[in-house]
Design a protein that fits this description.
The structure holds two protein chains of two kinds. By secondary structure, chain A is mainly α. Chain A contains 19 helices and two strands. Chain A has a two-stranded antiparallel sheet. The longest helix of chain A has about 50 residues. Chain B has three domains: about 50 residues; about 30 residues, no CATH class; about 220 residues, MetI-like fold (Orthogonal Bundle), CATH 1.10.3720. Chain B is extended, with a radius of gyration of 31 Å. The chains are: A mainly alpha, B mainly alpha. The interface between A and B is large, with 104 and 99 residues.
């Protein structure tokens, strides 16, 4: 059935509407993929054109520029200094000197070795005086990779600065030709707290993010294509080198040295998704429930109930999680209490039975999470216009109807993005799992790499692998980074799908 | 068309049948182990009580259904409206009572662990884990007097005189204070810029950080550990290393305060700019005084995060460098092996209480700002 306009769609029954939407969703998938490829193509075309334009601009600047400009192509900042903008010129010159110095002293060497990650490993040297052998350390693969990446970052930054230098020369020439004056150093400084204030403000945060977030992530992505592990650490034991896609093959193969990586990965991924689903939605609905109970008209001591719950947020999670995990052990308080009052015959090993441990983890996460959700829900519930409820009451809507037709849609609409972030956050919820169970019990999955347990999430498994590895490689950092990349892919795919299905992809300018 | 529908009906029926059969199979398959599980652990008394309560609930439900069926048959008379009003009032009283009961139960569930940890922090004997909170009946048996539970302040004294806890506490305090200050400055710079300025790289930067946030942060730890070790900022000197790492990547958490800055009208900035103020003056003289709640929220969260951070601190220290631990690593270590548990369990509780007290006090004082930040942040995504 094909529909020509919206009117026809409105005429359909509820069931037909549903079928229609479902079908159009699935038929749009190939179209969407096609569109995606088209977009990628357009992107490359755009980039190519931009680069071509830049090169052309640089060339015309060189050809048409005066001698000051031409020298600036080699000696950065020369044009600025010659035209009286000494501060800018010196900064450019400093950048060039630092860059050349770095490349000569360190960068060049590391960059040249980046292809092989070092050729000379640790070996035996002979000391003629003492007549004894000792270990000589050769190249350091880790440092080569690290500084190689840093050098590439630096080169990109340098090219960018060089381009800015060329641009400035062109601009200065134009300004001088039109008879105006160039900015003095003082004015430059003033613009740092005025027009260009954002550059001043962003300098520190972006440097931090680049060095301590972007750089490690780039490095770890590269590690996924090497055999870096604690027994191939690149300096003390063995060098590591590029292995291409081998690690991905390892993770997706059924039998590597007696270990079935892909089954382990599949099971842990499945549990991670189940966990994230339950952890997110149980907290969400129960949190709304508690908030509604406290907010209900006629309930006194609202502040007291709220404060009791909020206080639990203040207590550091590692204390409450560790303590609660001990409460539920075989000789913990919970078992003791239930045996004392005659509920249990014998102590239940809450952390020893896989399914029970999984359920317990979700329940305790509710205990941890409800206060946050209660806070959030309280804030939103108070924003729902009261007249909606009043008119619903006049129309004779029951409490449940009011909830399902007003409260819930409103909440879902507003908290859609929050639900998504908390879902992905729960997928990577290290603390709850690690501090409660440490990944255990090790019943069904115990033969995989890194000794995975039944409550292990991908993130805790990844951590275990970096701690104690499996087999001759020791801690398999390469496997950890492969898993990290896969986690990223899963999270980003989920986010992409949910974002495109959300009713409100809000325009942020609306708020201002 | 009709044929199509009947075909669809048949297919649906078939699917339904398969699902039902599957469900029945799963039920039978799983019910027996569940039953034997509960028989193994639950006492017969409790099972009877449970079934009894279930029976009562079902009975009451049936009564209610019967009443409503009976009522729906009767036509409501005009004069009954008063009665009906009374009924509504009674209903709301009943539902309020139910809510009170639920709230009390919730409060108990939420507070019991903290009550227990405080009680156990005062227990001086035995020092390990026990099943009993106040009295151990086995302690009354002759020859097992050691199991008797005794209370006193010894743990608190010991904690500060005989263990490395003061050192860990100091470490954590230094880290938390420095991070609170630096991180607040960085986050405010970032969020103010992204809220107020429109420059070419703004959108790409925000998208890039969003994507960056999807990588598990745990990955970065491996390399940061190696780099910090090279810089001699790991292991024994982990405190400055931790501060560096916490502060460096804090620019990513700008969402909440950006949302707040977005709500401050831009016309304020523009008015000041017309009067000749520079952008910097606008920030320091106009926006910051207005942004007090969000500044306090940022300081509070920036202080609390390193106070409770566990995994990164654990990763860049090791068992030999215990003087560089923070409280989380130290206290977790006391629960890591069974020998340590039998010696240090009550000390863990004491340490937990001491760690929690300052944060709880701080939190209670600044609760209002925290609530504002959390609700605002969630609404903005």
């Amino acid at each position: 059935m094909k529909l020509n306009d919206e009117l026809e769609y409105l005429k359909l029954s509820k069931w037909q509407k549903f079928v229609y939407r479902l079908r159009s969703f699935f038929t749009s998938i190939p179209k969407g993929i096609g569109k995606g490829f088209l977009k990628i193509g357009q992107f490359f075309k755009k980039v190519g054109l931009a680069v071509a334009n830049e090169v052309k601009d640089i060339w015309t600047t060189f050809v048409q520029g005066d001698w000051k400009t031409k020298i600036s192509f080699l000696v950065m900042g020369f044009g600025n200094i010659a035209r009286g903008q000494i501060l800018r010129g010196l900064l450019f010159l400093l950048m060039e000197v630092v860059f050349i110095g770095y490349m000569v002293l360190m960068g060049g060497k590391y960059l040249a070795q980046l292809g092989t990650l070092g050729t000379v490993g640790p070996h035996q040297g002979y000391n003629e005086v003492l007549d004894s052998y000792y270990t000589v350390y050769g190249d350091n693969s880790f440092k080569i990779l690290l500084y190689g990446v840093l050098t590439i970052f630096f080169i990109i930054a340098f090219i960018y600065t060089w381009r800015a230098n060329v641009k400035q020369n062109k601009l200065a020439e134009q300004i001088l030709k039109s008879g105006k004056k160039l900015k003095s150093g003082k004015e430059d400084l003033r613009s740092m707290v005025d027009d260009q204030f954002y550059k001043t403000l962003l300098a520190l945060p972006t440097t931090g993010i680049l060095l301590f977030t972007v750089m490690p992530i780039v490095f770890m992505i590269l590690v996924a294509f090497t055999n870096y592990s604690s027994n191939n650490d690149g300096y003390y034991s063995n060098l590591f080198h590029w292995v291409g896609l081998k690690n991905f093959q390892t993770l997706f193969s059924w039998d590597v040295g007696g270990v079935n990586y892909s089954a382990t990965f599949g099971e842990i991924l499945l549990w991670t998704l189940i966990w994230a689903f339950f952890a997110t939605f149980t907290n969400y609905f129960l949190g709304i429930g508690v908030a509604m109970m406290i907010n209900k008209k006629g309930i006194h001591l609202k502040k007291v109930w709220r404060t009791i719950l909020i206080m639990t947020i203040a207590i550091p999670q590692f204390i409450s999680l560790l303590y609660v995990s001990k409460m539920f052990t075989l000789n913990g308080l919970f078992n003791g209490f239930l045996m004392d009052i005659g509920v249990l015959k014998q102590a239940v090993d809450f952390w020893g039975i896989p399914t029970l441990a999984r359920v317990m983890v979700i329940i305790i996460n509710i205990w941890i999470g409800i206060p946050y959700l209660m806070l959030i829900a309280t804030g939103i519930l108070m924003n729902i216009p009261a007249d909606l409820y009043e008119s619903a009451k006049i129309d004779g809507a029951s409490g449940w109807k009011q909830f399902s037709k007003i409260t819930l849609p409103y909440m879902l609409f507003i908290t859609g993005p929050y639900l998504l972030t908390s879902f992905t956050g729960n997928m990577n919820n290290f603390n709850v799992i690690y501090l409660l169970t440490g990944g255990g019990p090790h019943v069904n999955l115990s033969n995989g790499a890194g000794n995975p347990g039944d409550t292990d999430l991908l993130i805790t498994w990844l951590f275990n692998i970096t701690q104690k590895g499996f087999g001759e490689d020791g801690a398999q950092y390469y496997l950890a980074s492969v898993i990290g990349i896969l986690v990223f892919i899963v999270v980003s795919v989920i986010s992409l799908i949910v974002y495109s299905l959300l009713p409100s992809v809000k325009n942020e300018e609306d708020f201002q | 068309m009709k044929n199509k529908h009947s075909l669809a009906a048949i297919i649906l029926l078939a699917i339904g049948a398969v699902i039902t059969l599957g469900g029945a199979f799963l039920f039978v398959n799983r019910f027996a182990p569940m039953w034997s599980f509960s028989q193994k652990y639950l006492t017969d008394n409790f099972i009877f009580v449970l079934l009894g309560v279930l029976g009562i609930l079902i009975g009451v439900l049936m009564l209610f259904i019967a009443r409503s069926v009976y009522k729906s048959g009767k036509v409501v008379e005009e004069s009954d409206s008063m009665k009906q009003h009374m009924g509504l009032k009674a209903m709301s009283r009943i539902s309020n009572t139910v809510i009170y009961v639920i709230l009390i139960i919730i409060s108990i569930i939420w507070l019991v662990p903290f009550f227990c940890i405080v009680v156990q922090s005062f227990r001086i004997q035995p020092t390990g884990m026990t099943r009993y909170l106040f009295v151990n009946p086995e302690g009354n048996i002759a020859g097992k007097e050691g199991l008797q539970i005794k209370f006193g302040f010894d743990n608190y004294v010991k904690l500060f005189t005989e263990t490395e806890f003061p050192r860990w506490y100091l470490n954590t305090f230094i880290i938390a204070v420095v991070v609170a200050v630096v991180q607040t400055i960085i986050v405010l710079c970032m969020s103010y810029t992204l809220s107020r300025f429109r420059f070419k790289m703004r959108k790409p930067m925000m998208q890039f950080m969003l994507i960056l946030g999807m990588f598990p942060g745990m990955l970065a730890m491996i390399i940061l550990y190696q780099v910090l070790k090279d810089l001699n900022l790991a292991l024994d000197h982990a405190v400055p290393g931790l501060i560096l790492v916490y502060c460096a990547s804090s620019g990513m958490g700008y969402y909440v305060s950006k949302g707040f800055f977005d709500t401050i009208p831009k016309s304020l900035d523009e008015a000041a700019r017309v009067d000749g103020a520079t952008r910097a003056q606008v920030l320091f003289k106009i926006i910051l005084p207005l942004a007090k709640p969000i500044v306090i929220y940022t300081v509070l969260t920036a202080f609390m995060a390193p106070w409770g951070d566990f995994i990164f601190a654990k990763y860049i220290t090791n068992p030999d460098s215990s003087q560089a631990w923070n409280v989380a690593v130290g206290l977790q270590n006391w629960l890591s092996t069974s020998t340590l548990i039998s010696e240090k369990y009550t000390m863990f509780c004491t340490g937990g209480v001491i760690v929690a007290i300052p944060v709880v006090i701080l939190f209670m004082c600044l609760q209002r700002y925290y609530v504002e930040g959390v609700t605002g942040g969630a609404v903005k995504g």
